[in-house]
Amino acid sequence: MVDFSNAYTYAVGALLCWGVWGIAAKYSVERLDNMSVLLVTYVVGIGLVLALDPTSPLDVTFDSGLAFSALAGLSMSLGSVMFYRALDLGQLSGVTAIPALYFVVAFVYGVVVLGEPTNPSQIGGIGLACVAVLLLVQ
C-alpha cells in the first residue's frame, strides 16, 4: 500500500513525473518551437492545478510569501526556457541530467544559509551525484 502521508512518496512521484516531462519535452521541441512548447506546458499546468482543487479560494496576501512565490515562478519559468532550449540543442540523456542536480543548490543553501545539519554521507552523496552527472554527459 502506498503511504500518501510520507514526503518521500510524493518525492518519488515528482521524480517519475519530471522524468516523463523531460521525455515529452524532447519530443515537443522537435515538433514545435520552444516558446510554443513552454506556453502549452504552463497553460496545461495551470489547468491541472485549478482542476485538482477547483473550490479552493486563492489566499494571496501582499507579503513575503507572495514575493517568494513570484521568485519561485520566475526562476522556474526561466529554468524551463533554458531547459527546452538545451533539449532542442542537445541529447535527452545528457541534457536532463544537468538540471536534475538542482537539489545541490538547495542542499548548499540549506546547510550554509539555513544552518541545517549535515553528515559525511550526505556530503559524499552530493559528490557522487555530481560525478554521476559528469559521467553521463561525457
Number of strands: 0
Q: Please state the overall shape, judged from the principal axes of the Cα atoms.
A: globular
Strand content: under 5%
**Terminal Cα separation, in Å?**
39 Å
Low-confidence runs of at least 5 consecutive residues: none
Helix percent band: over 70%
Total helices: the number is: 6
* Biggest beta-sheet profile: none
Indicate the structural class.
mainly alpha
Tally of domains: 2
Radius of gyration, CA atoms, in whole angstroms: 17 Å
Mean pLDDT: 91
Q: What is the H-and-E element order?
A: HHHHHH
In short:
The chain has 138 residues and is mostly helical. Helices cover 74% and strands 0% of the residues. It has helices at 7-31, 34-52, 64-89, 92-95, 102-112, 120-136.
Q: Can you characterise this structure?
A:
This protein has 138 residues and is mainly α. The protein has two domains: 1-90, no CATH class; 97-138, no CATH class. Helices cover 74% and strands 0% of the residues. It has six helices and no strands. The protein is globular.
